[in-house]
Design a protein that fits this description.
26% of the residues lie in helices and 25% in strands. The protein is of the alpha+beta class. Strands 1, 2, 3 and 4 form a 4-stranded antiparallel β-sheet that branches.
C-alpha cells in the first residue's frame, strides 16, 4: 500500500492564495459562548495544480488514516479552549460547494 498523497510537496506561507477544488466537508459541532452547541464545519480541498491529488475528487477517496488524522487535527486544535468539539460526520463535494457559496454570501 502506498502512502496517501500529500496535498502539496511544498510548504505554504500564511496568506498565500492557492487555487483549490473542494473535496468535501468534515461536519463538526462545538460548545458556543452563549451555551448550547454550534456548527463549525470544515471544507476539505485539494490544490488544483497538485499532481499528487489529481486522482482524488471526493473525500470518500481519501485513505481512512488521512480522514482520521484530519478529524484528530480539527478536534485537537481547540483542546485547551473548552469547546468540546465533536465530529458529526463527513459530506461530499456538493456540501462543500454549498458551504463555500454560503460563506461568500456572508462575506459580501
Amino acid at each position: 500500500m502506498r502512502p496517501p498523497p500529500a496535498a502539496s510537496p511544498r510548504a505554504a506561507c500564511p496568506g498565500l492564495v492557492i487555487p483549490c477544488r473542494p473535496l468535501g466537508v468534515v461536519e463538526l459541532s462545538q460548545k458556543s459562548e452563549g451555551g448550547g452547541r454550534e456548527r463549525n464545519d470544515r471544507v476539505i480541498a485539494a490544490p488544483c495544480a497538485s499532481q499528487r491529488a489529481q486522482e482524488i475528487d471526493h473525500v470518500d477517496h481519501l485513505p481512512r488514516a488521512l480522514r482520521e488524522e484530519l478529524e484528530a487535527f480539527f478536534t485537537n486544535a481547540t483542546l485547551f479552549e473548552g469547546k468540546d468539539p465533536r465530529v458529526l460526520g463527513w459530506k461530499g463535494r456538493k456540501a462543500a460547494e454549498r458551504l463555500i457559496r454560503r460563506g461568500v454570501r456572508a462575506f459580501k
